[in-house]
Structure of Double-GTPase 2 domain-containing protein:
Amino acid sequence: MSNTGVSKIICIQEGCNISVDGKCLEGLDKDNCPHCSIEDILDLNTESILPSPTDEVSQTRNVVENKYRKLYSATALKEEETISITSRSLARVIVLAGVPFSGKTTTIASLYDSFLRNYSYAGYLFKSSKSLIGLEEISFLSRSYSERNKADTQRTPYAIGKDNYIHFEIADPNRCTDLLFTDISGEHFENAINNKQDAEKLYFLRRADHFTLFIDSSKLLNNHHRAFTRKQNRGILKALLEANILSSETFVEIVFSKWDIVLDNKESNNEVFIVVENELKDILISRKIQTTIHKIISRSDFENIDSGEGLDVLLNQWINKSRYLRHPMTSINRGYNLKNREYLNFKY
Ligand SMILES: Nc1nc2c(ncn2[C@@H]2O[C@H](COP(=O)(O)OP(=O)(O)OP(=O)(O)O)[C@@H](O)[C@H]2O)c(=O)[nH]1
Ligand SMILES: [Mg+2]
């Protein structure tokens, strides 16, 4: 260590903790190790307040923690990584729900794409994201360098679990809004239908501002899939309501996804959508849950039908509705006479 500053041993070898515990992974002396270097991380002459050092390692640790901010991996965020976002603003937590293949992940990718292609989208600017690499990952199969003939989205693996958030910070002339989307496999929702314990595992729904249920429109057009698709989506709502994790504080959006397939099918009978809309609304209204209906095209399969339809309305709904904006905060006069508080009799 130099006399005027704090230095740290840096090792570029994966798994080596020499910077923390002083032990080289290969048992070498730091001066002989080809992977190690010593870097100055703080000039004591310019730093007035320092933690009292107990030993070299803890001193270095404290200094590092004080001087550097925690860095994000920039892939999809884990729940603990979202805390800095939810504590800095009234972030909107948006749970994208629906069985596998219903279009959840493609909708996030399409929203990101809309901001990349245009200076602004739906009156908003894209300000930042703490999960930019995650956004690029879910967009990969839609890019030309993936060398696909047709844009696609990779299935969200079941194995990534339920702790997977994509972040957008969106700005309009008056404010910035943080949006946190869950990007989880539809299998979690399928499992919840038949198993109350699996439904209860979707605990993060209790904090959700929005529960956006994706229903694949092409399945409702198909005689073989229609009845089962209806049953599945009724089942998801009932299971989450019975497990008491979907409450009246949360806004529910019923989304008929892949609407391009309906538009392209000249013989399609749209009555089925009204029937589904009404049966799901009935379930939700009985629990006083506010519901809106949306028809969206996240990625059109047809040249004469544009992608992005309905996403602007959905984005506005996500931004402008929050469970915490339902009840305007009021200051309550509790009638305390502060001078008479009992704790004032104590020195500490
Ligand atoms: N025609 C059409 N296809 C779409 C649309 N949105 C998504 N798709 C396609 O539907 C398929 C499934 O989309 P995903 O976004 O992966 O579905 P998901 O709900 O995230 O699925 P899981 O991750 O398995 O739960 C992909 O092949 C998409 O390209 C749309 O608006 N129109
Ligand atoms: Mg997905």
Remarks:
- The chain has two domains: 5-67, 79-325.
- Residues 226-242 form the longest helix (17 residues).
- Residues 41-53 have pLDDT under 50 and may be disordered.
- Residues 5 and 43 are 4 Å apart (CA to CA).
